[in-house]
Amino acid sequence: MKFFFAVVAIALIFGAMVGGAILWDGSYYLYKALDTGEPYAPHGRFINVPLQWPVIWASQVIGDVNVLKTLFGLMYALVPLGSLLIAWWIVRRSQPALFIWAALGVGFGTLMLQLTFIAEAILVLHLFWPVLLGLLVPPRRRVYLVMALLSGVILFSHPFAILLFAFAMLTAFLVGWRYPDRRPQLWVWVAAFGAMMVVVVLRFVTMSDTYESERLTLETLQNTFNTSLTGVRFVGVMSIYAAAVLIFLVPLVKRAQPWLAQRWHIQARSLSQVLYGLELLCILLAGLVLVIWGTYPRLWQTALTFRTWALFVSLPFMLGAVLESLIHRPGWLPEPESLWRHRRRTAQMIGAVFLLVLVTQSLSWTNLDYRIRQAVAANPGACVPQSSISQQSAASLLGHWTMTPYSILLQGMQPQKVILRNELCETYPFKADLPIAEWDRRNWNSGRFDMHVLNEKLAPEQRSAR
């Protein structure tokens, strides 16, 4: 598995180094953390706190925002990589073949939003994989301790935790019912997940705002589906689903070898090889489609809306792991080692595709970032209207509210220009503060960013506009 983890790590490190973590909301997260000196955890999503503290501590001795930006991305990159490592540690002794489902979940289920890094909707899914696999293998005390710790983090990460804990509760019940020797421990987990689900529901009810509630409407689900899962993206998702079905079928075909030979005169080995070839073909097709998607910013400029669907896209992979665990019994599936030899090669292919897609999108983002920097530098004024940055240059960010904090981060701790909506450049009175977002007015004399030069440049521009 060294190859798999190596290519996944390379992909995540590369994405962090090119600044993928400041895409969209990430730029505001980093800006707030650096400006206030405190972690920014919106909507009670406290998973951000431990991930941002190292960046804040480093900012006390490092003034280069580019270095801090890379560290920011690397901290968030630890979540998918660490979750995969823990998942492998959990299953490698008893049922290594189950790891393929986690590889599919992280390698494809959340791939279209992975470059963003900070999206809690995918962070919580990454953290859930070790918890789910821990329910499917023979009980071990250390595994249960890790599961409890990760469940506690999930509890305070994202509203998806409600559905994830419900899924875990049902899984624990079914596996306990299927395997009586594990029943006492697993049904304790049923109660634990039920209690955690209640806690998340109460948090959601008491802390929810329009941001959370608006994402529960059918209209929002339809709109986000249209902007994140249609066209080439839908082809990619369907291709990897086809690969997942084939992965699930191969061991069943091997088990049915006597019946196939007697009834249809088919050699299971030959059929398995055909299925394996189709499996790899589907993975390659999904990879090709997503590489094309990642190459052109206009195709992934709405990828942020995928966070609404990330759980539902990942759910079939979770179901595959659970179903396989439920039908497994001595003599039914091939021996774990022989099954894993086949799936290890598939996992390596998934890792290679993950690397190729993420690096391609990262390079696309690097080019886009460069064009935006050039457009800001070429603008003579301190207030840069969004309309002055061409649609071609800023396709993935133009019109998004985080262009303002993003433009500040581009210039380091002493920015001299800022990107704002057109009307703000023309009418906003910059005397007291700077409008970072609709709800965030940053006083000129507060915070760790030195805004004095920007303030001095904006004042005469405002008088001239009037």
Describe the structure.
This protein has helices spanning 2-17, 25-36, 48-59, 65-91, 99-109, 120-136, 141-155, 161-178, 183-207, 210-213, 218-228, 232-255, 257-263, 268-295, 297-300, 310-327, 336-378, 403-410, 422-427, 452-465; strands spanning 383-385, 418-420, 433-437, 440-443. It has 466 residues and is mainly α. The chain folds into 2 domains: 2-235 and 298-336, no CATH class; 379-465, no CATH class. Strands 1-2 form a two-stranded parallel sheet. Strands 3-4 form a two-stranded antiparallel ribbon. β1 (383-385), α18 and β2 form a beta-alpha-beta unit. α14 runs parallel beside α17. It is globular and about 80 Å long.
Order of strands side by side in the largest beta sheet?
1-2
Secondary structure class reads mainly alpha
Distance between the termini: 64 Å
Q: Estimate percent helicity.
A: 55-70%
Give the total of domains. 2
Assign an overall shape.
globular
Measured by DSSP, the beta-strand proportion falls in: under 5%
Assembly type of the chains comes to single chain
* Overall mean confidence score, pLDDT: 87
Number of helices: 20
List how many beta strands DSSP finds.
4
The Cα radius of gyration reads 24 Å
Pattern of helices and strands:
HHHHHHHHHHHHHHHHHEHEHEEH
Q: Biggest sheet: strands, sense, closure?
A: 2 strands, parallel
Poorly predicted residue ranges: none
List keywords for this structure.
mainly alpha, 20 helices, globular
Helix-strand blueprint:
Blueprint: H1 2-17, H2 25-36, H3 48-59, H4 65-91, H5 99-109, H6 120-136, H7 141-155, H8 161-178, H9 183-207, H10 210-213, H11 218-228, H12 232-255, H13 257-263, H14 268-295, H15 297-300, H16 310-327, H17 336-378, E1 383-385, H18 403-410, E2 418-420, H19 422-427, E3 433-437, E4 440-443, H20 452-465
Parallel strand pairs: 1-2
Antiparallel strand pairs: 3-4
Helix pairs in contact: 1-4, 1-17, 2-18, 3-4, 4-5, 4-6, 5-6, 5-16, 5-17, 6-7, 6-8, 6-16, 8-9, 12-14, 12-16, 14-17
